[in-house]
Every structure is written in C-alpha cells, then in structure tokens.
Design a protein that fits this description.
The protein has one domain (4-73). 59% of the residues lie in helices and 0% in strands. The chain has helices at 4-15, 29-37, 50-72. The chain starts with a helix and ends with a helix. Keywords: Membrane, Transmembrane, Transmembrane helix.
Length: 74
C-alpha cells in the first residue's frame, strides 16, 4: 500500500540513473589466500618481571657466545 510520501520517494529515485558495475559475488581462492596472508594480527603481549627482562636481554648474548666457542679451535 503506497502512501503519498512513498510516491514522492519513488519519483525522486527515478530521477537518478545509476549504472551498477558487474563484479563477482564470490572471491577467488587466490584472493582468499591473499586476505589470509596479509591480514593484520595482534602481537602477543608479554609481562616481564625485572628478572625475566634481564634474561631476555642476556640470553641472545649467551647463545652467541656459546655457539662461537667451536670457532676458536679452528
């Protein structure tokens, strides 16, 4: 059941000519894979204590030193 305001609305809408482009409704597998690969992720948040922070900073130095020891004997 159309009332006066609906008729006015349809008249206004009929004034405009809009061309809708043809686009696929489904994404291809490559687009889905790209969306999955390049989706932003949140980095995990770690709460370090003072001792844990010292260990996290010192551990790479310790590992590098230990792995360089065999090079001394070459």
């Amino acid at each position: 059941m159309k009332n006066k305001s609906d008729e006015k609305l349809f008249q206004k809408l009929d004034e405009f000519n809009v061309e809708v482009p043809d686009f696929p409704m489904r994404k291809s597998r490559i687009e889905k894979a790209g969306d999955w690969l390049f989706d932003s992720t949140r980095l995990p948040e770690f709460e370090f204590t003072e001792r844990g922070m010292v260990l996290a900073l010192f551990l790479p130095v310790l590992i590098s030193t230990i792995s360089a020891i065999p090079l001394i004997f070459l």
